[in-house]
Write a structure and sequence with these properties.
mainly alpha
Length: 78
């Protein structure tokens, strides 16, 4: 796996994991202000979720990289 393929693979994994992590811990506001949607989260904690996403994605990327480099998954023969 070259650098460009690795970056693209990591980005795809990161993006998928982000959409899995975004709903974690969201609670709607008790009394939403006028003009705000009632289901908007009170504290979205985006920075924390980006950090968690980066860590989980790095772990998944290492697993995918190891499987590709070991020859267990070979895209050239598919």
């Amino acid at each position: 796996m070259n650098v460009v393929t690795g970056l693209v693979t990591y980005f795809i994994i990161w993006w998928l994991v982000l959409f899995m992590v975004l709903p974690w811990g969201n609670r709607p506001r008790e009394a939403p202000e006028a003009g705000h949607i009632a289901s908007a989260p009170a504290k979205p904690r985006i920075g924390l979720k980006f950090g968690i996403t980066t860590g989980i994605s790095a772990l998944f990327f290492l697993i995918v990289w190891a499987m590709i480099e070991s020859g267990w998954i070979d895209f050239r023969t598919l």
